[in-house]
Amino acid sequence: MTAAWKWLLAIAGLLAANVISMVILVVVAHHGRAQVIPDYYARATHYDDELASASHSRALGWRVEVSATGDAIAARAVDAAGAPITGATVRVTGYQRAYASDVVDIELAPTGAGLYRGALPARRGWYDLVVRVAARGELYTDHLAVEVR
User: Fold this and answer.
1) Mean of the pLDDT values across residues 18-44?
2) 88-123: per-residue pLDDT in tens?
3) CA 23 to each of CA 9, 16, 17, 19, 98: distance values in angstroms, whole numbers, following the listed order
4) What values do phi and psi take at 71, rounded to 5?
5) Cα–Cα–Cα angle for 83, 86, 88, nearest 5°?
6) Which has fewest Cβ within 10 Å: 78, 126, 131, 141?
């Protein structure tokens, strides 16, 4: 075999390996689901409303701690003085980052003084969530990232 044939085979082999690698990457990266953030355009057009809501929530001074394990999500809501917020309607909406097209919308049931709980799809990973607490004639919203283990 001459040097010219060796170089030709080496270049052809590298090109073939590149094509095979690209095909593998395309197949692995695309699993049939759109990974677009739900309602991204509507959220962008109402950004001023989000800023006003965040400002109002900061002025209230309320805090909501959210934890999720397995197939359950729990929230603890307290007011500015640290007293539990009872009789509230607590709603959690969002999506898991790996499955953005599967929207989560859960209304949590009260389980104690300032404690709320609900069922979460049994899927591990990071969730981008919006927590809304309606109580005492006010609406508190908070954006959270929660890891489900």
Assistant:
1) 81
2) 999 999 988 888 878 899 999 999 999 999 998 878
3) 21, 11, 10, 6, 22
4) -115, 25
5) 125
6) 126
